[in-house]
Write a structure and sequence with these properties.
transmembrane; signal-anchor; binds uridine-5'-diphosphate; about 325 residues; Rossmann fold; 9 helices; binds nicotinamide-adenine-dinucleotide; NAD(P)-bd_dom; decarboxylase; UDP-galactose 4-epimerase, domain 1; glycoprotein
């Protein structure tokens, strides 16, 4: 039997986890996906179940994690990630970032595996400087609605660094900025699926506040490449991976309206509490250390993503028609 490297990917049925499974399968790893399906969907990885070098464990990583056999790498991507999700399940979000990370650090230590954790630009909170370099400590409200996510991720970084320093564990920390692409959930509340869903349903696009807040959107393939390089580098400090092409949410809505050709309008709803006013990664380190920078422009990435959502909506409509027909 071939001596493949073995990698555990938590959050495997989610948006990013499923793309990471695909990438490591392509690189000929043995991939062990783990997920409790709280926000994920097995459809994202069902194409992998037939492969010999893929296995799936339905498990909540906030409880003790057992994986038989050797492990070379662990990617910890399990966590609710959209504001809608983590506001609905705040305690599980805190637990997976803290207890879940602790379990995976223990597993990595026992297996002598290298662990990469998925951190986030949210560790910078509502940042006072723009763009955000890794040295910036952030401006976070621990008891605001986003605190359950932001502080779980900050604790996750702290405990990962502690295992690295005190146990000599091989660790990597990626700070991911807003990422988009196929397999996002149409109803996960994040701005891109929200806007595309509204446009496709012929509804007005719901912009929060006056839309002057900014984000910088990275296409998923670029992110996966950055993570792959970081995992195989020898850099153990936090690293930003994201696309520095910054845009206001109003302009972003206008782009989606133009792209979908649906002629919808933008309407303004109240801005949620602690919504960051600006967000843009400083990727100087990723460029210098990983020789990485994003390659996919927003117009290219949005076209691919729109086609995915169109196909998904058509499939769902066909299912609905079929169900009606069979009643
Ligand atoms: P997602 O919700 O699509 O995927 C998360 C997956 O984790 C889901 O499949 C969910 O079922 C699983 N999960 C949650 N809690 C679990 C638990 N206790 N045990 C096992 N599985 C569990 O979200 P995503 O966008 O793919 O995000 C993945 C990771 O990347 C998260 O850690 C998130 O914080 C981080 N991140 C994502 C973005 C982004 O733009 N997508 C930005 C910053 C950070
Ligand atoms: N947003 C919006 N309309 C929506 C969803 C989100 O205007 O239907 C805004 C939100 O207030 C934020 C930005 O879009 O300023 C990005 O929100 P998202 O939830 O995608 O991610 P965040 O970066 O805030 O975690």
């Amino acid at each position: 039997m071939k001596n493949r490297k073995r990698i555990l990917i938590t959050g495997a049925a989610g948006f990013l986890g499923s793309h990471l499974c695909d990438r490591f399968i392509t690189e000929d790893y043995h991939v062990i996906g783990m997920d409790n399906l709280i926000t994920g969907d097995l459809q994202n990885i069902e194409h992998l179940f037939k492969l010999q070098n893929f296995e799936f464990h339905h498990h909540d990583v906030s409880t003790f994690v057992y994986v038989p056999g050797d492990l070379d790498f662990i990617l910890h991507f399990a966590s609710p990630a959209s504001p809608i999700d983590y506001l609905k399940i705040p305690i599980q979000t805190l637990k997976v970032g803290s207890l879940g990370t602790h379990n995976l650090l223990g597993l990595a230590r026992a297996k002598k595996a290298r662990l990469l954790i998925a951190s986030t630009s949210e560790v910078y909170g509502d940042p006072n400087i723009n763009p955000q370099p890794e040295e910036y400590w952030g401006n976070v409200n621990p008891v605001g609605p986003r605190g359950v996510y932001d502080e779980a991720k900050r604790f996750q970084e702290a405990i990962t660094m502690a295992y690295h320093t005190f146990h000599g564990l091989e660790t990597r920390i990626v700070r991911i900025f807003n990422t988009y692409g196929p397999r996002m959930r149409l109803n996960d509340g994040r701005v891109l699926p929200a806007f595309i869903g509204e446009a496709l349903r012929g509804e007005p696009l719901t912009m929060f506040g006056d839309g002057s807040q900014t984000r910088s959107f990275c296409y998923v393939d670029d992110l996966v490449e950055g993570i792959y390089r970081l995992l195989h580098s020898d850099y153990s400090q936090p690293m930003n991976i994201g696309n520095p092409d910054e845009i206001t949410i109003k302009e972003f809505g206008e782009e989606i309206i133009k792209l979908t050709g649906t002629g919808q309008k933008l309407i303004s709803l109240p801005l949620p509490q602690d919504d960051p006013k600006q967000r843009r990664p400083d990727i100087t380190k990723a460029k210098a250390i990983l020789d990485w920078e994003p390659k996919v422009s927003r117009s290219e990435g949005l076209k691919i993503t729109l086609n995915y959502f169109k196909a998904l909506t058509e499939r769902e409509l066909i299912h609905k028609d079929f169900a009606l027909f069979n009643r």
